[in-house]
């Protein structure tokens, strides 16, 4: 009986230590991030250094742009969305080729934005002119369709 208790205690200590180390490592990776948050979801942490996710916009920054009646394109995504993970490496290079800036809003980190911007699924690309939504595309699309869309929105 004592062996079972001792074995259980050792297993419990090992798992507790592993959880602590993992949490500590994630907090170190998340330190000084563009999201301005101390705790990030591990899926977000995995994308911090990804060159396709370097144009992050925070909800209050987007709100300011819209209040100032700026034209902008926003890509609403989630790091856990398999369609977003497939779409982003296609979309962002096209935007660069076309000369269009796309702001990226992470819905996993800023869940209130789902309702605030009436997002029903990811990925969602929204075009704002004079601070008002004028067009949106929901779901994945082809490279050709994204290129045509961004060239149209650029004008």
UniProtKB/TrEMBL annotation:
- Cross-referenced InterPro entries, in alphabetical order? Thioredoxin-like_sf (IPR036249), Thioredoxin_domain (IPR013766)
Residue span(s) of domain Thioredoxin? 13-155
The record, for SUPFAM superfamilies, names: Thioredoxin-like
Q: Which GO terms describe its biological process?
A: cell redox homeostasis
Highest rank taxon of the organism: Bacteria
The cross-references to Pfam families, in alphabetical order and at most eight, read: Thioredoxin
Question: Under what name is this protein listed?
Answer: Thioredoxin family protein
């Amino acid at each position: 009986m004592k062996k079972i208790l001792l074995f259980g205690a050792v297993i419990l200590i090992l798992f507790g230590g592993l959880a602590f180390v993992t949490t500590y490592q994630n907090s170190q990776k998340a330190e000084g991030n563009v999201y301005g948050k101390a705790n990030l979801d591990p899926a977000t942490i995995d994308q911090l250094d990804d060159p396709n996710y370097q144009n992050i916009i925070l909800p209050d920054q987007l709100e300011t742009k819209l209040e100032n009646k700026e034209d902008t394109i926003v890509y609403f995504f989630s790091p856990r969305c398999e369609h977003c993970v497939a779409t982003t490496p296609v979309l962002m290079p096209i935007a660069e080729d076309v000369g269009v800036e796309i702001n990226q809003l992470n819905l996993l980190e800023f869940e209130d934005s789902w309702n605030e911007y009436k997002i029903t699924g990811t990925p969602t690309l929204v075009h704002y002119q004079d601070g008002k939504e004028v067009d949106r595309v929901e779901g994945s699309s082809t490279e050709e369709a994204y290129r045509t869309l961004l060239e149209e929105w650029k004008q």
